[in-house]
Amino acid sequence: MAFLEVKNLIKNFGDTKVLKGVDFTLEKGEVLSIIGSSGNGKTTLLRCLNNLETANEGEIIVNGEIVFPVQKTKEDVFKPLTFGMVFQNFNLFPQYNALTNVTLAMDAKAKRALKKQGLKFFERKAKLKEIKLENKKIAEGLLTRVGLQDKMFNYPCELSGGQCQRVAIARALALSPEILCFDEPTSALDPELTGEVLKVIKKLRDEGHTMIIVTHEIEFAKNVSDKVMFMADGQVAEIGAPSEVLVNPKNELTKQFLQSFLENNK
After folding, report:
1. How far apart are CA 105 and CA 138, in angstroms?
2. Separation of alpha carbons 180 and 168, rounded Å
3. How many C-beta neighbours within 10 Å does residue 177 have?
């Protein structure tokens, strides 16, 4: 059994069919890069995996457990996060510094968990203070891990695009997701800033993180991925090892896409 199984995932927006039965699997520790032209469902797929959009049909199974359709229980707040998302445009809170942007979700989760434990107000307040101090240490470690140890108290407006994206990666890691998703993590960056973000993603790959990356960086996908998936018209047109899909594709649509990519990047 694969670590991640996506079965017949369908998503419609009104009469517009965006995902038309997406199927794929991923093993623990593997990296899947998703390529394809804009408007073919790549971002919608990530949003459905992260429950930011609700699919109309299909199943998402992680480590043998069905996570979609959602199986809600009273203990959900205590469960580890299944998917973590790094957005194309960072989505940082401008009123908070880098450190607070990373700790916010951890603190909110702790607050919800303590509330469910039925502790008295002052007990809960004291415990939350203790947890927040621990969360701050974790956030400091994560920001150091992505090379921002000297930018912890800077606000997003004081950071470059590449630095903002690295804060967003640290934030996604803060809740220890089982699968980390990236939605075109370098598309909002100047070319000279792209390398620093890709370097962090490659480091995460080397550490054994399971990742799904929507990207237009074909050479990076070739070097970092265990699998590459080409999407066209809301479906998986081709999936396989980078040496197959990117070097010797079998699907005609994949060939046309890669040829167009090469011509546009001469």
Report:
1. 12
2. 12
3. 19
- Model's pTM, two decimal places? 0.90
Fill in the amino acid letter for 2. Answer: A
Pairing relation of β-strands 179-183 and 83-86?
A: parallel
Digit-coded pLDDT (tens) for 2-43: 999 999 999 999 999 999 999 999 999 999 999 999 889 999
Give the tens place of pLDDT for each residue, 101-158: 999 999 998 888 888 887 778 888 889 999 999 999 999 999 999 999 999 999 999 9
Pick the closest to residue 229 from 263, 189, 262, 257 (CA basis).
257
DSSP symbols for 128-152: HHHHHHHHHHHHHHHHHHTT-TT-T
Structure tokens given for 75:
């203990």
The structural domains of the chain, ordered by start, are: 4-92+169-264 (3.40.50.300)
Query: Crossing angle for the helix pair 121-145 and 98-116, nearest 10 degrees?
Result: 140
Beta-bridge partners for 68: 60
